[in-house]
Amino acid sequence: MNGTDKIRVYPDPVLKKVALPIEDIDDPVVNLAREMAGVMYAAPGIGLAAPQLGVSQRLIVLDVTYPQGNSGLITLVNPEIVELDGHVEYEEGCLSVPGFNEIVQRAQRVLVRGVDLDGKERRIETNGLLAIALQHEIDHLEGILFIDRLSSLKRNIIQRKLRKMIHHA
Ligand code: QAP
Ligand code: CO
Question: Which of 53, 103, 119, 134 shows the smallest number of beta carbons within 10 Å?
């Protein structure tokens, strides 16, 4: 298997939990980051957060260059949003909400602070798809899915369909 079978899908309760900060970037954390990148590329996806593999820790991977390339891998430990500016709408999906895509409102520009796997502080100020992906993945660490940012009508329809799909799986 390529690990995509490990992706937790709504309504898995781990997706609703607030993830814990990572204290040490030790071997298990580095291995988890590598596994997350592998699952993300295999899916394929452009972002993944640790809770999506059932680990309630503050770790995300992103690569918005994929599938054009795979040179843009970003791994962030304990990422935090420092600044948000403007508004943008984008049709989002999520590997934990498979098969659904809806327009979500986000900030247009972000400044994100975090630490890479070498323990080095990283600051990313960006807009466009990377800004959207960072907000989406950091939301996962707070137990928030993109469907939580839709109208309750749209959210309820998707939640009901997903529960039915899981039930019949
Ligand atoms: C989050 O999402 C994201 O339903 C990453 O059947 C989404 O990689 C950031 C995927 C939009 C920015 C903009 C979803 C693949 C992948 C599905 C993903 C599916 C197959 C979602
Ligand atoms: Co997601």
Answer: 119
